[in-house]
Amino acid sequence: MLVFIARRLFVSIWVFLAASVLVFILSTNVRDPLAEARQLPDSSRESAIRAITERMSLDDPILLRYLRWLGDALTGNLGVNRQGQEVNSMLENAFSATIQLITGATVLAIVIGITIGVISALRQYSALDQTVTFIAFICFSLPLFWVGTLLKQFLALDFNDWLADPQISPLFIGGIALITGLFCGGVVVGDRRSRITAFVSSTAAMAVLLWVLSATEWFSDPGLGPIVVALTAIGGAIGFTTLVSGLEWKPPLQASLAAAVLGIIAYFALDPVLDDPQLITIVLLALVTIGVCFALGWFLGGDLYRRNAIPAAILTGLFAGAVIFTDRMLQSFKSYSDSVGNRPISTVGAETPNYDGSFWESGLDSFGHLALPTLALVLISLATYSRYTRASMLEVMNQDYVRTGRAKGLSERAVVTRHVLRNGLIPITTLVAYDIGTIVGGAVVTEQVFGWSAMGNLLFTGIAQGDPMPIMAFYVVSGGAIVVFNMVADIAYAFLDPRIRLS
User: What range does the domain containing 212 cover?
Assistant: First the structure.
């Protein structure tokens, strides 16, 4: 393994350097950097041309300019752009904006896409499978700039107008309730009676819920409250226990329920701390939650069930914390909405200029600016993850060891989670690593549509001005990420699949 890593690292470095030479040559010839200076009046033309020529070393050969850039880059200095600004500071701002933009979109696309793929595989050729396939490929085929324009119109402008009088029409309630019922009925594995029962109950429950939310004008001043938080935490405990170990074993369920109860107690006990916390406070609370839930799973699980009780308790604790976090943020929605002129969903930029609010209000501001570009990226990426997951799951479900597991009397949950899902996700590891590496380079179209100044904008500006320094800074991050994550994917694949030998 060490020999493989060393060999792959050596090759990757030479590939990165060879590509950097090509990118530098192309970036120096993409456009004349003196074109704008030549259009200046006679009084300032010569001085402007002289300043740009000296700053960009245009009189030197391309190879000498590349070697000078490479030497500075190895020391961490990426030079200055055509205007004399430090590229390091430009890259720092652009990279932080890109990470803020793509992190949520990437995580949501992976989680939702894999979940949809698993459900489609388990319900192969059903109406749900065909519907999900149809919708996924529609989203995949839509141009991103068109999706962004539709989202800005219907999920920003119209939604912000609707919040002034948040009344839900009976037709909309019926449509959403019917879609929810069809989805729940399609997901349920069982006979026709079970699916019909799930369809009717979920449709009625969603219709009643939407009617109550509309009648109470919940959307204008939202919040979950202690009852909903408690019921959600307990439901999460049951759900995570079912996923991890099943409900036939009591110790994992006891550990999960204990974690949920501690979360409910924390909802009241931490009220002063969560009034206006700092980000470090939230991180520390999450770490404490993991430690406490680990201890619960360790002691309540015992020697026989500790392996299942620990992850079930940790997942439940983090889920309860996320519900509490969401409730506190929703409680600040009305004050934030009033402070931004009742336009909480933004269409342009990464933040409201000069906005100064509490921790929760600032979080809502970031969420309001991230909502549309994140949703656009997720919709485009869903088809890839869902289709790859579905195909991989179906391939694994036909393997001999899966049939052997069923023949030994294992429950369907155990077969799916322990054998099918675990082995079916091995090929997805390569896809996830590659996507993360490529998306670090930014989403140029998304940034242009939603007015984000991130990595894509840095590249676009460098090309438009014929300036190689921003382009090379973009390459250092994006090219380096692709090389690193491709190597990580190969190594992870070998660890996950013992049939792979790298020696």
Answer: 123-411
